[in-house]
Amino acid sequence: MAASPASGFVNKLRAHLELLDPVTWISVFPGLACGAMASGSMQATPHDFLILLAVFLMYGPLGTGFSQSVNDYFDLELDMVNEPTRPIPSGRLTKKEALLNCIVVLLLAIGIGIYVGLDTGGVRGMVIMGMIFSALFVAYIYSAPPLKLKKNIFASAPSVGFSYGFVTFLSGNALFSDIRPEIVWLAALNFFMAVALIILNDFKSVEGDREGGLKSLPVMIGSRNTFLVAFAIIDAVFAVLTWLSFTWGFTVPMVLVILGLAMNVYIQAQLLLDPKGGISFMQGAVDDGFGNAIGKSDVQEHNSFLRFQVANNVLFLVNNLIIAGMIGIKYMQA
């Protein structure tokens, strides 16, 4: 039986939505929330909540969605090997339809950025517009030739760290106050955390990267050494966050960060001993708890990374939110 026009439209709409990769949208919210909390100036008014929602839409469904759709558009050949069920390689969307998807979400993100920047005004408004424009530009050159930053890990990981782990902190903060120096530190640490996680995320596409000549770290140095590099960055981030908490006088958060670091080191040791099957006790959290949010994988090393990511992200996010809240309280009392 032939599909009805209505069902065909719904399936096409679902394919467009899948191209924007909704599971990635939530990744921008912690940075925006921390930035807003650290300002100490957000008010419980409809305007402040709506403007924060607008910035979430700008960075999440639109900005992150653009980065995902433009990546799929330029990576058709690789996705036919790595992810053949994605909308373009599976034939559910043509390249022309995917290009239209990219253009629409790009223009909407730019439009919201201009509106929010003008609504905020002054230097803070310029910061917000500068951050979203920079993030969109980096998202494009990450996937598009001739630069195609993703071809080399030394360019790809920092570009993702900037777009996902840095600009959102500053934007959330600039919505409601001048940029707090503490939030610059938190944004920088989240940049490095994102760099480490994107290095590990490359496990999922080793086969296609090797065939396509992309120089991801797992391709260049192998799985165990990739774990070592990423874990060194992650532990350094926790160590610096401990020092910052101490210098800012946040004793309780400092203790929590130290506990988080100790737990991370224990988990990391299990993965270094067994890169493919380590910390299998966390598999239930991936399959039944966070699987729909962080994805699933048949690549053993990537599946190990997903188990680690659940624990690490919870520990790091909780510490970020607590510290951002205490920064905000400090400025409210000033």
TrEMBL record:
The keyword Transmembrane helix applies. The chain crosses the membrane at residues 49-66, 98-117, 123-142, 154-177, 183-203, 224-246, 252-273, 314-332. The keyword Membrane applies. One of its GO terms (cellular component) is membrane. One of its GO terms (molecular function) is transferase activity, transferring alkyl or aryl (other than methyl) groups. It is found in: Membrane. It is a multi-pass membrane protein. Keywords: Cell membrane, Chlorophyll biosynthesis, Membrane, Transmembrane, Transmembrane helix. GO terms for biological process: chlorophyll biosynthetic process. This is Bacteriochlorophyll c synthase. It comes from Chlorobium phaeovibrioides.
